[in-house]
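BUG: 3D viewer hangs when loading the predicted structure for this chain

Environment: internal workstation, default settings.
Expected: structure renders.
Actual: progress bar stalls at 90%.

Input used:
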Amino acid sequence: MISHPSRQCTVELQALPSRIGQVRRIVSAQLRYWHMDCLIDRASLGVTELLSNVHRHARPDKTCTVEMELLLDRLKVSVHDHDPRLPVVADAGPLATCGRGLAMVAAMSESWGALPDGDCGKVVWFTLPTPAVTAAPVPARLPRLNGAERPAPRFTEVALAEHATEGHRPEPAPARSAVPG
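Structure tokens produced before the viewer hung:
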């Protein structure tokens, strides 16, 4: 099942090797939809490592949930599984071919952690900083159309998008008379 309200995406799956590639494509598509293309590589790498750990280590089953949440200044990616054992970062050498997944997640993320999830599972998560969003300056007046001035918009595109995703709708600007006074 996939759900993706405006700032959250959740995918439930069996952490099997054949499914991990599908989840990477879902993560990539969702980040493109959120205009966060610059986070695709790191988020995909982190999700791959966490799902690989579920596949290798989780008991009693491989059922898990991947959740991405777009916060104000960061992306949080979590993997919930049914195994209550918390992961441990392995002390793998530079030539090791396995056991480096959590170390890679720690190295490429802003922060990461693991928490018990009740009596029957855990959540392993990491965060990535989102790029600063800057809006183009809004002119005081828009160009004249047919001799009439239009008022400047009340919201920048960025503010409008933020309000729209939070369920707010800006009030329309009051109409101005085109007759000079």
